[in-house]
Specification:
The structure holds three protein chains of three kinds. Chain A contains 15 helices and 14 strands. By secondary structure, chain A is an alpha/beta fold. Chain A has two domains: 222 residues, Response regulator (Rossmann fold), CATH 3.40.50.2300; 132 residues, Response regulator (Rossmann fold). Chain A is globular. By secondary structure, chain B is mainly alpha-helical. Chain B has a two-stranded antiparallel ribbon with strand order 1-2. Helices cover 72% and strands 3% of the residues of chain B. By secondary structure, chain C is mainly α. Chain C has one domain. The longest helix of chain C has 28 residues. In chain C, the strands form three sheets. Chain C has a two-stranded antiparallel sheet. Chain C has a two-stranded antiparallel ribbon with strand order 2-5. The chains are: A alpha/beta, B mainly alpha, C mainly alpha. Chains in contact: A-B, A-C, B-C. The interface between A and B is large, with 40 and 45 residues.
Chain lengths: 431, 378, 409
Amino acid sequence: MIRKLTLVLASVTLVTSAVAVAQTQAQTQYFPVFSYRTGPYAPNGIPSADGIVDYMALLNERDGGVGGVKLVTEECEFGYNTKRGVECYERLKSKGPVIVMPYSTGLTYKLLPSAAKDKVVVLTVGYGRTDASDGRVFPWAFTTPTTYWSQASAFVKYMGAQSGGMKRLKGKKIALIYHNSAYGKEPIPTLQTLAKRLGFKLTLLAVDHPGQEQKATWLKIRRLRPNYILLWGWGVMNQVAIKEAANIGMVKRMIGVWWSGAEQDVAPSPKAAIGYRAGTFHAAGRDFPIFKDIDKYVYGRGKGTNKSSVGQILYNRGMVNAIFATEAMRGAQKKFGVKRVNGDQMRWGMENLNITAARWTAMGLKGFMAPIKNTCADHEGNGPVMIQRWNGKVWKIISKPISPMQNVIRPMIEASAAAFAKKNGITPRKC
Amino acid sequence: MTAEASTAGEAGARSPLSGLTGKWWFWAAVIVAVFAIVGLDVWGLDEDAENHKAILSFLGDGLVGFLKAVTEPVALFWLKLGFAIETSMTGLLVGVLYSLVALGFVLIYKASGMFNYSQGVMVLFAALTFVGLTEYGIPVILALVMAVGVMILFAIVVEFLILRHLVNQEQIILFMATIGLAFFLEGFGDTIWGSNVKKIPLDLPSGAMDWLTIGDWNVQVQWLDISAAATGAVMVVALAVFFNKTRIGRALRAVADDHQAALSVGINLRTIWIIVWSVAGIVALFAGIVWGAPSGVQFSLSLIALKALPVLLIGGFESIPGAIVAGLIVGFGEKIAEVSWGDSLGGGIENWFAFMLAMVFLVIRPQGLFGEKIIERV
Amino acid sequence: MFYREAGQFSTTYSQDQGIWSIKQDKWATFAIIGFAFFIIPLFASPYLLTVLLQLLVGCMAALALNILTGYCGQISLGTAGFMGVGAFAGYKFATGMRVLGGDGGAVTAATELVPMIPAVENIFVAILLAGAVTAAFGILFGLPSLRIKGFYLAVATLAAQFFFQWSFIRFEWLYDYASSSTIQAPRLSLMDGWVLPFKVPWFTWDLQFFWGTVDFTMKVSGPGYADKLHQYLIGLIFVVLFGFIAKNLMRGRIGRSFMAIRDMDIAAELIGIRPLRTKLLAFGISSFMAGIAGAMTLFLYLEALEGAEAFFILDSFLFLFMVIIGGLGSIMGTYLGAAFITLLPIFMVNFLPWAGGLVGMSINTATVEHIQLMVFGGLIIFFLIVEPLGLARLWQISKEKLRQWPFPY
């Protein structure tokens, strides 16, 4: 029985991959898309995947691809489950991907070493392994444009500015409500370091997966009466936390991580959530010229995935993923004079990614995002963090771009990466 | 199965520790351990004085610290009476909602001996149907009625396609069948209604009520919790009346007591099953609405079934009053535990604490709170 | 015709009690094992190996659970939790550890007392040690089984599952205080530096003969370093080995005492089987194997993982499904169930878009997933209605039929 199934499986795989190889001829570039349109995080996964796929479709329809090379996207549904993600990666690997966007922390950790071996770039936009920003230890990983640690420091800066100067943070009470997982624990070292340095009192409150029921956490918040609440949630935890905060009138003191600030998160209680703030690194909404093109070329020609997602925050973030990947590809094409880029060339492209304000404007995304520039050592690109606020209908950016405290974060990243390198016998390359 | 169980007597009722205390090697080990620790100190077996001081302080600190860590937070918690009252209230209100989910399990288990794994997915499916229908512009009341209709239809289909084919099977097989059902329903619900977060279209109350002030603490109770708990309570009372005062209810209890006997006095088992599954479906719909109010209707709603399991452990799988009281105990217990011990343990202890609480309950009282006199449940 | 027992007689009692009642079964078993060891490596792609590794882990975990649930009648929903214990124990053994960790891993006077335990470099030793540690935890969490039974016990074992899941995040010592709270398998190899000056066919699992050298080094663990084929072979060794161990244990005194407890514990106690000892032994053996499955997950399959996510409660449920679908109390059934539950979704994900393509339809991935869930659920119900005793029973029935084929009358 096992053997039979295996054989059938193998033959099916062979057939499908043969078909795919025939499709991916020299003039196309293959992009796997790890998506989760089902399972507990589907509400977040759907617009994210839509953004990536639609942007690639736009390039195909409007420009005929990148540098004359058509982009081929293939989605693989993994339900935010690392094991299924691994299966996806191995299945799609035979089709020659040069860049993957795992869209899950667990899967990122799993893929980082194997992708480096397979010469595949791992691009984690706003998630993943923070210390992988050190390009000397993790040449194949890119955390562009910014990371959780940077964001945590930017939040502290923002709270400082709100209270009237960083000195005023001394003695203030800040509570961190976090998803009890590797993802949720990411900001803790940064915040602890900053708490020591700036003298604010940090309280850590863990919420176990999935976070449907958080009464105890919010009782503790009521007892604590913090000046600020940081929310580091994901999935259903966000909606419940926002509702709870609204019920006790604390929603205006709460600032969410960029994965806690999307339309989905305020959907169950749009009115109560007014005044809730969250981090972001790009604009929300569809007031950019590029969306006219998306309407015209993608949806107008029936190539779109999901019209209702267009312009949502997570959709735009999906687009950011696709933009980084394709811009890197563009750069690599120019540098190496090739049509279809391979893994090494893509890696070069990501490492030398330089999207200036003029380039953003040229893409029809003026003011959408700050300029990004990667270097060999810095794979984070030092992107600024912005604060957005929910006004009952849309998310609006309310702050100037806040650049993270690089003097604090960078040494932490380098120390952590160095420790990893030492433990795993990696010699950091020279930059 | 019941026949086996009733002969069981007191077999399981011995404490696991009683075996140990009668063993010479247990005491020998204790004595050796004590001597090893004291010996290091008194006879100076350890040349390096620093080391044994470190050991002793480590052990001493550990013991004292442990006792302090366990008792102190609880004492401090109750000293702050206002907060303690608010915590207890919140815990009890949440407990009612746990009971509501647990009730669905109990109903089906009573009538068909089926541990219905799909109850959580039924909660999701029922709520999805209700919200999905309103999204098509159907008025709320009508959508509610239609959702109830869908759940009744679902019960009929389940009976027709699954239950009647699995009569007299072992419990674990029935359990497995409900797992298959859960998978199917999960895919089916998502196919029809999509996977987005959906807002409950009811104008549920929000905000909090200032209830009373004790010392410097202003005891607040949230309107949503009160209304949800009130809904739950009405539901529970209605069910109690239904099962105790109506013909169908009596028939159900007859079936729960003895399938064969119930059949022989002319009770139609299949009708009973359909009714019970329908009622469980309706309970699921209400549970879905009250749980979905803060979070929106989405996939995670199906995971609240896990929250109902410790309730079932304490209350017993077959007891409706048990489910209610146990829900209150779990809600109350886990909130107090999280608020008083949570911080020193690192937070987020609610999930396993509820189960540990339930396990301690069970070891002391294996038949559950209101369980029948039969000690073993196989 | 081919599957006949005519002419095969048992002449001794031990022959009559053998694992294989007729010779064809024996040959078939060895043929399958041989195929898995020698033929699959010839053509297996990395993708197939990944799938097979997942299957091997599933087999091991289901085997562990079947001993506890199928043979001893104690339903457990904590398998994934125990696997997690195995994974973390394996990690600590394979990377070396201090037993006492101070705050943030800092070395203090108290932690210095206990010397560093050196890293275990042999993967077999590391995995077996992980199993031993897990067995101890299993016995501890098996204690309530003395008082609680059936579904009550099943739900009670969730306490272990949730507690472990929480611990894997909470106790930073487990993941060496990494800020990411993930663990990564260290580089492990076997037969390092063993080289033959000439080639032997099969040893290198390719068909080149004699020229070149054979490097016996097996890269068995470590992300980015390990060779999937070698990992597969190590996993296969464990699964086959423990398959035989389990089969023989369950045929012997221990297995009979388990089954006596399962079938009627009062009667078992009357004939002199001690419930406490027997149940705890079942928990011990089962968790030992679950721990091995967990360590296999870390070293051979996932290599880098986050404890609470990789050993989630739903995984525990999946293993129980494998055991029930396969057949409670059947080693053969365990493997069939594991294959069914692991491979069917993967097969469907590959097959549905292809089938859709045949009729000119492109099915999007979400729909594939939904259809897959529905078919999967439907098939489980269908199987249970057709044959409640699981795939093992179906297999037995088909064997009966096969014996008489092609002349059933």
